UniProtKB/TrEMBL annotation:
Originating species: Consotaella salsifontis
Transferase listed as a keyword: yes
Keyword entries, A-Z: Kinase, Transferase
One biological process term in Gene Ontology: carbohydrate metabolic process
Similarity section: Belongs to the FGGY kinase family.
An example molecular function term from Gene Ontology annotations: kinase activity
InterPro entries (alphabetical): ATPase_NBD, FGGY_C, FGGY_Carb_Kinase, FGGY_N
Protein name (record): Xylulokinase
């Protein structure tokens, strides 16, 4: 098969596209800041303009290839809760509110009264959830609901527009807080409580949504073949993790970006263990996923950038650690003792390295809870910007006591979407990811093990995990 496949990553900060060949090699990629506008004093997104930007990016990337081959299939992954109302022609009738917007605080508090259903949805309703924003929009922008025919996820919008068919990727439906992950259907009582608008049919990742029409800009400019397949993608983290699981089905995937997100799947049901989040398995018709989000960047915000970069480059000797009792205090955020905050703000290397150890203790504690919930003890993979530090990954291997596989692919979400495009169009790609192995050092692991035993209980309380497992 001598065609090309395109993956799109619609992120909170940047949008990216990647074009791969039938062998899985990334031939071209483009990235640019996610386009935003100011509406009513807040940041929002114009989905039509975003789609135009993506079309330009795809065409630019394709033209650099200087090849007669065209793109045969496209898929997209990205942000989970952003979305907008569209009319019958799939044209926006309003803007998309980003997931991180907190204007729906009151609505989230009202919907939280339905917490008894959390065991079925797998996720608590907070101001970032789609359900809270539906209720806010119904109260404050009723004209959009009145004019619109469907609500569409921002991540799904470009493909829906090109296919002229609305759909709702399942892993994005889960992020609404209204989706029963066992029955794999929306819960009517939660839709009613959130005053949800008309929703498009749910589509499984990898399923065919439609084809690109001959009058689409992508076809007219030569980059995409007429009739190219449009394949449902979904939430960015599961799509990236699916690419890793193609070669390691039981992998636990640790994405070290602005937020750290630990993600794993199993072929059976996951026990309900708040604050762990449960979701549907991305590509399987049965089974569940388990994940946890930890605000990594906010924990490190107190440290001056140059001091942190220097330490991530050179590391710090494990035998130099002291003050094992302060691990939980270090990740206490605003509740940190003044002396520790001052040491971090001055870039004192020993204290900064202990903070890096403490956030890794948190990751270990979360992984333990995931295993208690029913996740297999598989290989541990790490991705994302923070994972580029060899010293940090070595520290994490020593704290976790197991080998870490670092994925060296720079644009894993866009690449994962491209692989979904190939798979969904009937041309699956088999490719071994570029990884580096970081085995634990036995002596260093023993030092961290003793420190972790002392830190486990206070860190458990800080994370909302009230029953730490026995060592």
């Amino acid at each position: 098969m001598d065609g090309l496949f395109c993956g799109i990553d619609i992120g909170s900060t940047n949008v990216k596209v990647a074009i791969v060949d039938a062998g899985g090699a990334t031939l071209a990629a483009e990235a640019r800041p996610t386009p935003r506008i100011m509406a009513e004093g807040a940041v929002e997104t114009d989905a039509a303009y975003l789609t135009s930007v993506l079309e330009d990016m795809i065409v630019r990337a394709w033209r650099r290839l200087s090849t007669p081959r065209r793109i045969l299939a496209i898929s997209a992954a990205g942000v989970g809760e952003d979305g907008l109302m569209v009319d019958g022609d799939i044209m926006p009738v309003g803007y998309s509110i980003p997931w991180f917007d907190r204007r729906a605080e009151a609505e989230a508090a009202l919907l939280a009264e339905h917490h008894s259903l959390e065991g079925r949805t797998g996720i608590a309703i907070d101001p970032t959830r789609t359900a809270a924003k539906w209720l806010w929009s119904a109260r404050h922008r009723p004209q959009e609901f009145a004019r619109g025919r469907w609500w569409i996820s921002l991540t799904d919008y470009p493909l829906a527009k090109w296919a002229h068919r609305p759909f709702f990727s399942e892993s994005l439906a889960v992020r609404s807080g209204c989706y029963d992950i066992s029955r794999r259907a929306f819960l009517p009582e939660l839709l009613e409580a959130s005053r949800a608008p008309s929703l498009a049919d749910v589509a499984l990742a990898g399923s065919r949504i439609g084809t690109v029409g001959g009058q689409c800009s992508l076809v007219l400019r030569g980059a995409v073949a007429p009739g190219a397949a449009l394949i449902a993608g979904g939430h960015d983290h599961p799509v990236a993790a699916a690419l890793i699981r193609a070669g390691a089905p039981d992998a636990i995937v640790d994405s070290l970006g602005t937020a750290e997100l630990l993600h794993a799947e199993t072929g059976t049901c996951v026990q309900h263990h708040p604050p762990l989040v449960r979701s549907t398995a991305l590509l399987a018709p049965a089974g569940e996923a388990c994940l946890y989000v930890f605000e990594l960047a906010s924990q490190l915000r107190a440290v001056p950038g140059p001091a942190l970069r220097d330490l991530l480059d050179r590391g710090w000797p494990e035998h130099a650690f002291s003050g094992r009792e302060q691990a939980a205090a270090l990740i206490g955020g605003e509740a940190r003792p003044e002396a520790l905050t001052g040491a971090l703000q001055s870039g004192e290397p020993g204290t900064v390295w202990q903070l890096l150890e403490a956030v890794t203790f948190a990751a270990r504690r979360i992984v333990e809870e995931m295993k208690r919930a029913g996740i297999p003890a598989g290989a541990f993979y790490t991705t994302g910007g923070w994972s580029r530090s060899d010293a940090f990954v070595r520290l994490r291997a020593n704290v976790l006591g197991q080998t870490i596989h670092r994925v060296n692919e720079p644009e894993l979400v866009a690449l994962g979407a491209a692989f979904l495009a190939a798979r969904g169009s009937g041309h699956p790609i088999a490719r071994t990811l570029d990884t580096a192995l970081f085995p634990p050092d036995r002596a260093a692991a023993e030092i961290h093990e003793a420190r972790y035993r002392d830190a486990k209980e206070p860190i458990s309380r800080l994370l909302g995990l009230s029953h730490p497992p026995r060592s």
